[in-house]
Amino acid sequence: MPSEWSLVMPLKRLSLAKSRLSAAGGRRPGLALAFAQDTVTAALASSLVREVTVVTDDPVAGERLGALGARIVPDGPRNGLNPALAYGADTVRARLPTASVAALHADLPALRPSELARVLRAARHHPRSFLADTAGTGTTVLAAGPGVPLAPAFGDASRERHRASGAAELELTGVESVRRDVDTEDDLRAALVLGVGPRTAAASAEGLRRSGASRR
Ligand SMILES: Nc1nc2c(ncn2[C@@H]2O[C@H](COP(=O)(O)OP(=O)(O)OP(=O)(O)O)[C@@H](O)[C@H]2O)c(=O)[nH]1
Ligand SMILES: C=C(OP(=O)(O)O)C(=O)O
């Protein structure tokens, strides 16, 4: 089966990322990096993924994710998530004009390659489509076929906004790892139950060890 999708993954500077994981304190940048590393690794292992472009201005994340095989581009517009995604998609299509492009969040540490392949296979049947997050209000994947503008509308209530923009909702079961984005401590606990990648597992275990030590 051809590896036809070019993914675009936005990533904030690590010092600013995942602010809702406030209980993690100083571990927050390390966790945000671990989520992104596990997400990139799983995405690149997915059978329908040709390449992953990470849009980030973070030098450490750029180096680490580049070492995993991601293509790194700076956040040219520096104007928030949607301009970063549109810019990343433009850089893909400047090289590969007929590419199918999908935006994927960098905070999916439980991502399974086979589940992502199912989502991308379903997305083939629509010019533009999306997958809702576990919470049911957001979006974790927005996909656009050849020649179709990505037109990202992530942010508050993005499920509804992507639907209103004419994108088809992918109503799949059994793709929980692709829906499970991690914003809060509760989200992280739920991702750990699903099973996270090795870097998130290590970063989370280190946090538990430290908080156990501080309770003694
Ligand atoms: N390049 C880039 N990526 C962004 C920007 N804003 C958000 N992202 C990324 O977009 C994805 C979804 O964003 P959020 O889930 O809101 O993540 P976040 O902004 O780190 O989390 P909070 O601080 O809790 O809002 C994550 O992978 C973020 O790192 C931005 O301005 N530029
Ligand atoms: C930006 C979004 O996600 P989050 O819930 O991670 O902020 C979104 O779902 O559009």
From TrEMBL:
MobA-like NTP transferase domain boundaries: 40-138
InterPro entries on file: CofC, MobA-like_NTP_Trfase, Nucleotide-diphossugar_trans
GO molecular function, one term: nucleotidyltransferase activity
Chaperone among keywords: no
Family matches, as Pfam families: NTP_transf_3
Residues where phosphoenolpyruvate binds: 139, 155, 158
Enzyme class: transferase
Pathway: Cofactor biosynthesis; coenzyme F420 biosynthesis
Catalytic activity: phosphoenolpyruvate + GTP + H(+) = enolpyruvoyl-2-diphospho-5'-guanosine + diphosphate
Keyword set, alphabetical order: GTP-binding, Nucleotide-binding, Nucleotidyltransferase, Transferase
UniProt EC number: 2.7.7.105
PANTHER family named in the record: 2-PHOSPHO-L-LACTATE GUANYLYLTRANSFERASE (PTHR40392)
Protein purpose: Guanylyltransferase that catalyzes the activation of phosphoenolpyruvate (PEP) as enolpyruvoyl-2-diphospho-5'-guanosine, via the condensation of PEP with GTP. It is involved in the biosynthesis of coenzyme F420, a hydride carrier cofactor.
Family: Belongs to the CofC family.
Protein name: Phosphoenolpyruvate guanylyltransferase
Gene name in the database record: cofC
